[in-house]
Structures are given as C-alpha cells and as structure tokens.
C-alpha cells in the first residue's frame, strides 16, 4: 500500500499466494468481537461505515457500473456486461418480492440509491436507510432530480421503527454489517406485513467472524463479518418467517469483483490524482483479493428470499425463543 513493492502482470493469480501466508491475528480477532459489548453496537457500526463509505462518491463510481450497485450481479454468461448482470439482479429482487406500483419497501443500506432509482421509476415507494452522510445526501439529490416516490432516512436498522408496515425489506450487500442475526430477524417481524417478503444478498463464509486482518484494519473495521448462512437460518427457523429460496452466487460475485478491479485499474490516473496512490493500492488489493477468494471457494455468496407467514394460513410467532 505504501509503495515498497510494485507488481507487474496478473494481479489475480498473485492473490493465490495468500494460501502460503497467514492473516489471522488473534488479538485483533478477539477485540473485534469484544469492543461492541462495551461500546454501543450502533456507535460501532457508524464508525465502521464512516471509515469505508465516507470517501467521495466518485471513488466508488470509478469502478462500479452505471447501476451503482455495490453487491454481486447475476451473470448468465461471462461475456455479458456488468451493467446487464446487475439489472438482472434488480429485476430479480422486484419479482421475488412481488413488488408492484404502490408497494412500500424498506431498503436497508441505501448506498448510492440504486434500488431507490430502479424501483422508484416503477412507482414503487422505497424508504432507504443509511448511516453514511455521503449516502444520505446522494440519495436525497437523486430523489429530487428523478421525482420518484422515495425517501431516505439517516437511521441505523437496529433502531428504526415505522407506524406503517412494509410490503418488503431489501438488503443489498449489507448483511455483512448486520451481524446480530437474532435482532435482525426480530426487526423483520416488527417492520413487515404478514405475507411480506425479505430479499438479502451478501458475501458469505462458513465461519462467522472469520474476516481477514487486512480487511479489518484497512477496509471494514469494527465487527463487520461475512454472512454466515447456516447461523442466520437458525434464527429464521425460530421466527415468523420461512425460506422461499436460496441461491449460490459465488461465481457471479467473482465476475463482479473481477470487473470492478479492472475498472479500478483503468481509472488509476484519475484516482491517484484526486486522492492518493495508497488509496488506489488499497482498493486494488481488496477487489482482486475478493475476486480470487470467490473464484477459489474461500468465500461464498448467496441470495436469500424469505416470507413472513400469512395469518390466514399459518400462525405468526411474534418472538424468537
């Protein structure tokens, strides 16, 4: 990151040498789990989000496609564009959540307004939650410019409440920041109508809290953790929700990160001129490392669709035991 080592050639293949070196520092691993116990989780989350997402928007837009979607696309073939694959994913979200004009949706972690724009232009009413000031301002301006039936609120998901229940909750690439699964599922129950849908996509690991130290120090501080599917479904099984579908998107996330990394490299001159060389190197390591991890199976990626039981045909349990 500081320029002591330069790399020429295939960055993707270089990442495979991580199998030789360890990157787990026990003290940092322990602190990441302990600190939120003494400092409010919401405060910890806001600090972590600020660290990663409070760079200027143009930094991220330099490597994402026109949709501005910061989670996996759904590819049908390797040769198609990232934008087409992302639009396929967004169409899947709308279809799987049974959304139509007038539907009310809670978008957890609004990012750069990708879902507000895509669904709002179809007359779907989206409330985006964010704890990033950059994200909040970006989405506000987007809503005003497009005149779509959406709103953005600066609020942590754990603290959010609404007097009117939603038809669906959409979480695009944010479950990695929502690690308290029991409370997450309880919030679903508080905020969704009976019969309401939940859509989640996320990078995943079979062990919770297995984040590499590099990511913890430089990319996602705090107790950000890859989505642990079986752990999450343990709480779903004790709730008022049932699993409708689970999809493995590991290869699609590899293709997504690979394209992001290439886009970043193509924007190197602009990034270095506007920010600094070390920031460009940080994101280069992060994106190529992620691509290689999805490719070799070190990381997984999933889409999950849930539905709250409808009171007309199944008992709704309001609490998780």
Give the class from helix and strand content and strand pairing: alpha/beta
- Summarize the amount of helix as a percent range: 40-55%
Strand order of the largest sheet: 3-2-1-4-5-7-6
| CATH top level assignment of one domain | Alpha Beta
Largest sheet: 7 strands, mixed
User: What is the succession of H and E elements?
Assistant: HHHHHEHEHEEHEHHEHHHE
Mean pLDDT reading: 89
Strand content: 15-25%
Rough outline: globular
Question: How widely separated are the two ends?
Answer: 47 Å
Please, how many helices? 13
CATH topology descriptor of one domain:
Rossmann fold
Tell me the Rg in angstroms. 19 Å
Beta-strand segment tally: 7
The CATH fourth-level homologous superfamily of one domain: Vaccinia Virus protein VP39
Q: Which ranges are low-confidence, i.e. pLDDT below 50, for 5 or more consecutive residues? A: 315-321
CATH architecture of one domain: 3-Layer(aba) Sandwich
Description:
- It is a single chain.
- With 321 residues, the protein is of the alpha/beta class.
- The chain has a domain at 11-53 and 80-250 and 300-308: Rossmann fold (3-Layer(aba) Sandwich), CATH 3.40.50.150.
- 44% of the residues lie in helices and 17% in strands.
- It has helices spanning 11-14, 26-38, 41-53, 57-61, 82-96, 114-120, 133-146, 181-191, 213-219, 229-236, 250-266, 268-274, 277-296; strands spanning 104-108, 125-130, 150-154, 166-172, 192-204, 241-248, 300-308.
- It has a seven-stranded mixed beta sheet, sandwiched between helices.
- α11 (250-266) packs antiparallel against α13 and α12 packs across α13.
């Amino acid at each position: 990151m500081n320029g002591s080592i330069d790399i020429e050639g295939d960055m993707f293949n270089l990442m495979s040498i991580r199998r030789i070196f360890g990157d787990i520092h026990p003290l940092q691993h322990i602190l990441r789990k302990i600190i939120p116990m003494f400092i409010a989780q919401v405060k910890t989350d806001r600090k972590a989000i600020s660290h990663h997402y409070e760079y200027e928007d143009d930094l991220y837009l330099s490597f994402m496609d026109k949709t501005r979607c910061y989670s996996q696309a759904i590819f049908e073939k390797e040769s198609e564009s990232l934008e087409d694959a992302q639009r396929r994913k967004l169409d899947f979200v709308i279809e799987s959540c049974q959304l139509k004009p007038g539907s009310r949706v809670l978008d957890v972690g609004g990012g750069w307004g990708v879902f507000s724009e895509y669904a709002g232009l179809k007359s779907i009413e989206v409330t985006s939650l964010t704890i990033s000031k950059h994200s909040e301002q970006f989405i506000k301006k987007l809503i005003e410019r497009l005149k779509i039936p959406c709103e953005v609120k600066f609020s942590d998901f754990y603290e959010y409440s609404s007097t009117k229940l939603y038809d669906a909750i959409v979480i695009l690439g944010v479950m990695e920041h929502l690690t308290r699964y029991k409370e997450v599922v309880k919030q679903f129950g508080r905020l969704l109508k009976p019969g309401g849908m939940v859509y989640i996509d996320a990078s995943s690991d079979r062990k919770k809290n297995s984040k590499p130290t590099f990511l913890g120090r430089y990319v996602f501080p705090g107790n950000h953790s890859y989505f642990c599917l079986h752990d999450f479904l343990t709480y779903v099984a004790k709730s008022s929700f049932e699993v409708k579908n689970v999809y493995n998107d590991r290869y699609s996330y590899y293709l997504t990160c690979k394209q992001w990394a290439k886009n970043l490299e193509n924007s190197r001159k602009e990034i270095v001129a506007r920010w600094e060389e070390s920031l460009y190197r940080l994101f280069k390591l992060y994106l190529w490392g992620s691509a290689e991890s999805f490719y070799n199976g070190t990381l997984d990626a999933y889409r999950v669709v849930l539905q709250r039981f409808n009171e007309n045909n199944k008992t709704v349990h309001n609490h998780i035991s």
